Structures are given as C-alpha cells and as structure tokens.
Amino acid sequence: MSQQLYLSRRTFVQVSVAGLCLPAAFATHAEVALATSINRTARFRALSQRSAKGYVQLVLNILPDATKNTIATSQRLMLSSLDELALGNYSAEVSQNIAAIKVEAAVLNALLATAPKRDMLVAVSVQADKLTEQANKTTELLANQTKSGNAKIVAIADKQRMLSQRLAKNYFLQAANLNTAAVRQQLASDRAEFKAGLTMLKDAPISTANIRQDIELCAMQWYLFETSIDKPRSRPFVMDDVAVSSERLLDITSSLSSHYEKAVKDVV
C-alpha cells in the first residue's frame, strides 16, 4: 500500500467520522440554545406578575419606596429581555409570538407609568395576565421543540418564579377588596401547582445535589411565604411580610431557573 493511498484512506475515515458527529453537535447546540430561549421568554411571566403585584402594593401603600424600585427594575428587565430575544434565530411562529410579547409588554408598561389608582387595579392585573399568557404560550412552543425532558424542566423551574408573584398579586388584590371567585380560584390552583413543581424539580434526573439543596431552600422560603398569606391581614406587618417573602421567593426561584439552564449546558 503506498503512503499516498494510506493517507487518502485515513483522510476519508476522518471526514466520515466528522460527518457522523455533526448531527450530534448540532443537536447539542440546539438544546443549549433552546434552554436559554426558554429562560428568556419565560422570564416575562414573572416580570409581568411582579410588576402588577407592585402596582397593587403602591395602591395599598405597602413598602412604597422598595415597591417603586421593584416596578422600575421589572420594567428594565423587560426591555433588556426583549433585546436578548432579538438576538435569537427562531421559527416564524415563535418570532410572531415574541413580537406579541413585545406588544403586550408595552401596554403593561404604559399602565404602570400612570399614578397608582384603585380603579386601575383590574386593568393592570388583566394586562399582566395577558402578557403572562403570551409569554407562557411562547415558552411552551419552544419547550415542545425538543424531545428531551431537560429543556422542559427549565420551563417548569421558570414557572415557579411566576407563580410566586401571581400568588402575592392576588393576595394583595383580595386586600384591596377585589376578592372575586376568579382570584380565589387562581390562588388555590397556584398554591397547588407551586408545591407540585417543587416535587417535580426535586425528582428530575437533571437535578444535581447542589440544585436539590437550593430546592430545599426554596421549600423553606415557600413555607414562610405560605404561612404569611394564611395569617389575618388585620395583624400588624402581615402584608409587609408577604411583600418581602414574595421577593425572597422570587430570588430563590430565579436562581434555580439559572441553575437548571446551566445544568442543561453541562449535560449536553
């Protein structure tokens, strides 16, 4: 066998192996990109509810200085998240849904810019729900693009932070005498879903020992939050406690969401 023929065959084998690896490499990159996109779109679910929660708190005069900062921070994060989403390469359907997120976010931010008024509470809450619904639809579209359960676990972790904020928002709506059947029903279902989400995350194969420690921390913070919303609102500082504990729960669930996004990257 001549050296030239040997080199030719070796080159053929190298090229063939590289060709076999390409689909796996593309799949790996797609999985990582998908987890990141899910995190970005899902973020709007929590930001919308957090902003509405803050608006209700201002109407009720609960920790007004900190609450104004909360709303301003949420609005900045919405804008930066839209900038991040603009960098992605999506299907036409996902792109249309991202455009719809942008529209709903603009309407919500316009409402939040008005002076807090009790007669605006329903409008702000409804618009926050519209943005949440659109962000949820887009997140599910992205999650359904993969057969892997890992990216879907990222979506579940992301939803936990939204639930923490919607629970607090509805609690404060009740305090503002908007204790409708719809509000009560959503409070009950969100509590059940949050607990179920903690269990699903803990049992997920992708959950590392460090992530499970964070889940335990989340469970402890959830206990404090749930205890607060069960106390009579007439007791001193109870609503302040709900406001503070909901923000702490958001911090923990946001950290969990980031950890799961990183875990997907480490796995693939």
Can you put this structure into words, describing what you see?
- The protein is mostly helical and about 270 residues long.
- It has one domain (about 10-265).
- It is about 85% helix and about 0% strand.
- The protein has eight helices and no strands.
- The chain has helices at about 5-60, 65-85, 90-110, 120-145, 150-175, 180-205, 210-230, 240-265.
- The two termini are about 40 Å apart.
- Mean pLDDT is about 85; it is low at about 5 and about 10-30.
Number of domains: 1
Strand/helix succession? HHHHHHHH
Q: Largest sheet, described in full? A: none
Overall number of strands = 0
Tag the structure with descriptive keywords.
268 residues, single chain, disordered N terminus, 0% strand, mainly alpha, 8 helices
